[in-house]
Amino acid sequence: MSNSSEEKITQEERQQIFHEELQTLREQRFISKSEYTRISRLYDRYVSLRVEKEQTNLAAIEEKKLALEPLKLTQENVVSDEPKMIGEVVEETPQKPVVAHGKTKSKKTVEQIRERNISVVLITGVIFLLIGGLILATSTWGSLNAVFKVLTISLVSVFFGGMAFVASKLKIKQTAFAFLTLASLFIPISILSASYYQIFGEYLSLQEDGKGLLGLIGGALCLAIYMKIARYFQSKLFVFISFVTFSMTTYFGIAYITFSRDMMLLLMGLFNVLFLWNLDYVKKQTKLELFKLYVLQFLLFKIIAETFVTLTLFSNNSIYSFTLLIVAGSFLILVVKHQKLYAHFGFSIVFTYGYFHMIYQSFLREYAIVAIALLPLIFIALSSYLGKGNKALGTRFRITSLVVSGLVLIYLSAMSLSGNNAQIFL
Predict the structure, then answer these.
(1) Contact, 238 vs 230, CB < 8 A?
(2) pLDDT at 2 over 60
(3) CA 346 to CA 331: how far, in whole Å?
(4) Could you give the residue ranges of the DSSP H alpha helices within 100-210?
């Protein structure tokens, strides 16, 4: 193995060791998450600048060698003519400059070759797209059968995948990534078109009950492809696409096994709670090394978005009450286990709303005043229990309990002024 490959391996190992040690510092809480992210990005930037500098130096040395090559050829010709000039009278005649045909032609640099390859690949791709568009425009799309339509749409993905393969063989990484992105994004379109034209059967079509199962299978297939691309190119774009695909796949799977909207919201909340509780185990998986830096932010955004949808889709039943309490539980896990102290606002609001909803949708309705009066005590108990390990968290819940106590007092006062509930206080 050459020295350059050894240096490259050494640099990669050093970079991996640095990230592992930095992750250890983060997990043992020697540094905060923001410091971990900032140091990691600065180190990656340092490595990339160093590699670019080395490549620039190599290119400059190569150009310098190419520039000195014609001078070397001229000097060799002059030295070979010197013996003839000894003892002879050389007639002073103008000599033509020595030109070595076919030898002094400057070689193209690596950057020039790369630009040429990019141009060839892009021009070829554009030509094929124009030809395909011309054939499609001049043919009657409506007269084609369903199989040929789906095959035509799928061939677009195959075409871009082939162009990505050619670009990778020509060492054009960014162009290969661009073509592979287009190819991968056409995969779900192909699956959707196949379902629309009932290629997989009537049960798995968009109009039947099996569409959730098809979404689960197709989403799992796309997720595996997107995660593979993300790891190969170390692409943040495909990390984001993988997260979105993961969410859509779970939605399709839950929709397939549930029989109502309320049950779907309930299972979505349970899934988030289980995922958050086992997040540390997920982060330890070596195959998910690229994703663990962003998975908590993604889950936080996912929970907030789903909470908004849950609150929007109001329903008068006990299942909806339990859904709200489970959503509040996911915020509590974010606070206690993942140190997201600001999430206690979400827990306080959703839990209070869910608690009230449960009172009026269950047998507790008969004891509403007593049940509502217990709400501040629940927050006081939480502040006492959680404050043992985290004083800041205990203080926040103590303040929340005071606010809730004031709101409950106002609410109970309003109830006492109403005709039906005033007698309770007598």
Answers:
(1) yes
(2) no
(3) 6
(4) 110-138, 146-169, 173-196
If DSSP codes are grouped into helix, strand and coil, which group holds residue 88? coil
355 or 59, which is more confident: 355
Place of tokens 């059968």: 145
**How many Cβ atoms from other residues are within 10 Å of residue 205's Cβ?**
18
Exposed, middle or buried: residue 7 (CB in 10 Å: 0-12, 13-18, 19+)?
A: exposed
Residue 15 half-sphere exposure toward CB, CA atoms < 13 A:
17
Distances (CA, A) of 175 to 170, 185, 226, 291, 385: 10, 16, 17, 24, 56
For 325, residues 6+ apart whose C-beta sits below 8 A from its C-beta are 351, 354, 355, 358
What is the DSSP code (8-state) at residue 87? T
Confidence grade of residue 47 (pLDDT, cut at 50, 70, 90): confident
Which residues 6+ apart lie within 8 Å of 108 measured at CB?
Answer: 116
Q: What is the pLDDT of residue 130?
A: 60
> What is the C-alpha to C-alpha distance for residues 210 and 20, in angstroms, rounded to an integer?
44
**Which amino acid type is present at position 142?**
G
> How far is it, in rounded angstroms, from Cα 212 to Cα 369?
44
CB within 8 Å of 207: residues ≥ 6 apart: none
Question: DSSP string covering 174-185, please?
Answer: HHHHHHHHHHHH
Q: Return the SS3 of 100.
A: coil
pLDDT band at 9 (very low <50, low <70, confident <90, very high): low
Going 273 to 364 to 370 to 414, the CA torsion angle's sign is positive
